Amino acid sequence: MNIQHSKELYKEAESHIVGGVNSPSRAFKGVSGGTPVFMEKGEGAYLYDVDGNKYIDYIGGYGPIITGHAHPHITKAITNAAQSGVLYGTPTALENNFAKKLKDAVPSLEKVRFVNSGTEAVMTTVRVARAYTGRDKIIKFAGCYHGHSDPVLVAAGSGPATLGSPDSAGVTSNTAKEIITVPYNDIESYREALKSFGDDIAAVLVEPIVGNFGIVEPKPGFLEKINEITHDAGALVIYDEVISAFRFHYGAAQDLLGVYPDLTAMGKIIGGGLPIGAYGGKMNIMEEVAPLGPAYQAGTMAGNPASMSAGIACLEVLEDKQLYDKLERLGRKLENGLQRKADDAQVPIQINRKTGALTLYFTSQPVKNYDNADATNSLHFSTFFHSMLAQGIHLAPSKFEAWFLTSAHKEEDITATLDAAETAFQAIKNS
Ligand SMILES: Cc1ncc(COP(=O)(O)O)c(C=O)c1O
Ligand SMILES: N[C@H](C=O)CCC(=O)O
Question: Which ranges form a coiled coil (predicted)?
């Protein structure tokens, strides 16, 4: 595959933009190097690069693009919003409409606030929990990623883990001291942490279904126990649903799992591809937020008409239940096919899948926490990744990221992906 123009653009990018990318996850550091491909068009399940190559896309913009690229209903909503002026600095009816729609879909959101990114949403839930409880410490789980605000860049998964810097430089030791990290799916470690720091804990922050050391589901009873132990200690439960909200069904993962937090952070899908974040939860806790309460949070772009319009339009598309049935059907076909091809090539893999999101790990051991994911074979992943890319299959360049199907993917895309995977597994076998 000729990617000459991408190579030239990357060289140029490196002289203007740090590392040539605006988010480290897009660099190829986790796959033994190579040139990030420069895309110029997305349509349905496909991306087209600057050299005219076509790819079946499984990144989906790292999650937001669940209805496929340039979905006509969402594109129309964004176009209409742009034609009406993109920012007023006043409230709009769109914000009310979207807030009502989100609250209807996720009943634990008694009040919401829109922000511009998942990072902001999580960062503010932490601040609000501290304001409400009058305590400072937060418990999080190793390898979960909650954006790039200072406190959550301790033992972070996703991009930081890929770059080998889960504890970012520049986070003060005092900030790091406020964060206690325990392994995901290990309730005894969690209980111990609360025993040791109980009265100082403001909240626990958790991805109810993990997306950032691959897709990892909670063990039965794990989230229920977290709620019980946390509330007994007078602390709050925060769910980071930036990846999981509207990913597996119309609503948040909490509604699928039947376990409910005090506060929830969301982003990605709810913006239909435009920048967004939202947080919300119990009324009395949310009333800590300015202008009602003393916890300050603001935003020039917060609730902007284009993001609101795109988000409403995206949810309108997602209201069709058949869409999630399709994601399940295609996800199952992809999972089964990948497993079969790997078995044929005698390459040990594990696949964790939930509906249309999956992670293929190069290991023979089940992956239930970050250490399991970290221990998987990075060289095999790099070989697989580069072989797939050269065959027009666009995966995230990290063994910690998920593959995201969209409602635009077709059966034939899965078949083409499995054909490519056969070659990629053979490349590993011959390496
Ligand atoms: C679970 C989770 N929380 C928070 C974030 C941060 O969101 P954003 O990149 O929109 O700031 C992400 C992804 O980046 C995420 O996956
Ligand atoms: N896994 C991250 C968020 O979900 C990827 C986004 C990024 O780091 O650019």
Answer: none
Instruction: Tell me the C-alpha distance between 220 and 290, whole Å.
Output: 38
Asked if 174 and 97 sit in the same domain, the reply is: yes
> What are 65-121's pLDDT values in tens digits?
999 999 999 999 999 999 999 999 999 999 999 999 999 999 999 999 999 999 999
For ligand 2, say whether the CB of 241 is within 6 Å of any of its atoms. Answer: no
C-beta of residue 149 within 8 angstroms of C-beta of residue 123: yes
Amino acid (1-letter code) at residue 387: S
Domain boundary among 318, 350, 369: 318
Amino acid 60: pLDDT: 98
Domain identity same for 128 and 269: yes
The answer to whether the beta carbons of residues 285 and 132 sit under 8 Å apart is: yes
DSSP 168: -
268: annotated active-site residue: yes
> Average of pLDDT values for 414-424?
98
Domain match, 103 and 114 both: yes
Q: Is the CB of 272 under 6 A from ligand 1?
A: no
Q: Are residues 221 and 303 in the same domain?
A: yes
* Whether residue 165 has pLDDT greater than 80: no
Write down the pTM of the prediction. Answer: 0.98
Is residue 58 annotated as part of the catalytic site, yes or no?
Answer: no
pLDDT digit string, tens, across residues 21-69: 999 999 999 999 999 999 999 999 999 999 999 999 999 999 999 999 9
In the block, which residue shows the tokens 């660099």? 27
Q: What's the number of domains the chain is made of?
A: 2
Q: Give Rg (Cα) of the chain.
A: 21
Query: Does the predicted interface ipTM exceed a cut of 0.85?
Result: yes
Q: Which of 25, 66, 116, 119 best tests ligand 1's pocket when mutated (most atoms within 8 Å of CB)?
A: 119
Q: Which residue segment(s) compose the domain that 208 sits in?
A: 72-318
40: tokens are 């110029």
CA distance 23 to 147: 11
**Is there a single domain that holds both residue 184 and residue 46?**
no
Which residue CA neighbors atom 7 of ligand 2 most closely?
25
